[in-house]
Amino acid sequence: MVRLGFIIGFIALLGALLSGLAAYRVHDQELALDRIALARAIDVHASLVQDRSTERELLARVASGLFRAPSVLKPNMLEPLRSAIYAFKTDFVVAGWVARLRPSELAAAQAALAAAGFPKPQIRDFNDKPIDPASVTQPIDVLMDLEPRSDETMRLPGRSYDDDPVRSAMLTRARVEKRSVASDPIPLLRENGPIGVIVAAPVIPEGATEPAGFITFSYELASLMLTNDDLSLFSVALKDPRKEGSELVASDQGVVSTRMTSPDGPAPSATRTISFGGRDWQLGYYAKTNSARRAEQTAIIVAAIGFAITAMVCGLFGYVAYNNLRLSREIQVRIGFERRLTAVIDELNHRVKNILAVIQSIVTRTLRHGSDIDVARELLIGRIHAMSNVVSLLSESQWQGVKLKGLFEARAIPHADRIAVSGPDIAVSARAAQSLSLLFFELASHSDEGLSLVGKHPHITANWTVTGEEPETVFHFRWEEFNTSEATRRPDSDFGLILLDRVAPEALGGNAKRYFTDVSYVYELTAPMETVVDMTERDRTDKISAPVRPAK
To answer: Which segments constitute the CHASE domain (predicted)?
Structure first.
């Protein structure tokens, strides 16, 4: 009996030790996993907020760069920009043109506002009281145009921002620093309007040292903060730069309110700093669940189960072994997922930076000094559409490449119905697809000028072949426009020449030439298939998109 009791006691002690060890391990694992998941979710959220803020600041810079020698007295300065700013598809509330008017220009500005059909064309202060021109001795900032125009916004032009402390400080800083600047949080449109921020970009005419005015975009704070729903791991708060010890929070309906913080209150689980409009903004993240308490509850449950099955000698060791193996595999999968997510984010950031660099180059080259603004705007929109089309095709294929014939779609290539396309339907790499998409657009956009005036159009052929033996196969591309000559074909732009002669051949590791025959214009491109297909890029993308599996 004593021996049996000793054995039972030994088994009970062993079961208690194993149960306690399992509970301790589960506690640590759950706590570590919750912290990792929360930290990763916060990092991803902060990165997305920074990316969205950068896009909106870039919109202001691009919009200010599209102005050429602006006249501050024109009340329709945003007219050439309307299609461009909507092409960015950002969620701004109001875009505005704020002119910096000298005292001698106030009467002419008031007449221009009246001629434009604004219901209150008088030059007024921010409280809507008329300004006596004789009392103005310094230049003042006056809202002359805005977008969108509605019954509510049409009454705003004519107001001066000099007596509004928030907007005046923003414009003064933008004028002094000559860069885009964001304001403090402020109600938009009206006193009880949605809380948001305004970013202003100065418009400096060529040869001038002072801005002629400012392009402004206002955004609701809730959309900038990317507030989460009830299923998220955390809630987001923005530190209020106007008052120490207060935060701005947004409800599920997007309504922003202010709350005070105290030293005795809960501290944020993490804080992140983002840059927007030339200033730093601090986001506070509050975890919605208590990780330590949940880990303790899980550990208690595991310990109770271990004590309950201690009497089952045969099942005890099998259960503990199986449970530990399952937990280990789940941890490996979750850790592998976190590593894969980091790799995907890094790859996405790299591709977004490349695309933004290409767009910046396109905008800079297209809107160079001396170019016709109407032609430049059409070319700019067309080139961006070509880039958008190839990015859509790459997204559909998970960046595994694009079928070459798919780049000749009518929505991205002008006169696509007159292009006879032939050649093997090979899948080119992402880098090659972006270069070829811009190349095809540039060739097609210059193919219908002189002859179209007499009712004729050039017949265009685009064909390609692959010659040679592996691994030294060569890609040959030939573009030929019949019924055209050097006298009838529109000359290529500076950007087009750089793209045709240098950028596209260098991107594909090949060479190109263009010439006129007696009856046609010809462009030829030769490159090794190794760079056109680029299997190393596909392998890397395929590896990133592969599903995470537990280690065996």
So the answer is: 129-232
Q: Classify strands 427-428 and 402-403 as parallel, antiparallel or unpaired.
A: antiparallel
Is 58 in the same domain as 154? yes
> Tokens 């179209």 appear where?
452
Q: Which pLDDT belongs to residue 185?
A: 93
What is the phi/psi pair of residue 29, to 5°?
-65, -45
pLDDT value of residue 412: 64
Do 432 and 302 belong together in one domain?
A: no
Indicate the burial class of 532 (C-beta count within 10 angstroms; 0-12, 13-18, 19 or more).
Answer: buried
CA distances from residue 209 to 168, 178, 182, 212, 275 in whole angstroms, order as listed: 20, 9, 21, 9, 26
Overall domain count for the chain: 2
Position 2 scores a pLDDT of: 58
79 secondary structure, DSSP code = G
pLDDT of residue 325: 54
- Are the C-beta atoms of residues 172 and 180 closer than 8 Å to each other? no
Q: Which of 286, 307, 328 is the last residue of a domain?
A: 307
Q: Do 301 and 443 belong to one domain?
A: no
The phi, psi pair for 207, rounded to 5°, reads: 85, -5
CA atoms within 13 A on the CB side of 353: 6
Which stretches in the chain have pLDDT values below 50? 314, 317-322, 369, 450-455, 551-552
CB 523 within 8 A of CB 479: yes
| Half-sphere exposure in the Cβ direction for 408 (13 Å, CA) | 19
| Phi-psi category of residue 166: left, alpha or beta, with phi > 0 → left and psi -120 to 50 → alpha | alpha
What is the predicted pLDDT for the residue at 410?
Answer: 57
Structure tokens at 541: 């993308």
Query: Of 258, 290, 307, which residue is a domain's last?
Result: 307
> By residue range, what is the domain housing residue 409?
348-538
pLDDT in tens, 101-152: 989 888 888 888 888 888 988 999 988 899 888 888 899 999 988 888 888 8
Is 6 domain-assigned? no
Please indicate, yes or no, if residue 319 is contained in any of the structural domains.
no
Residue with tokens 């310990």: 303
Decide if 552 is inside a domain: no
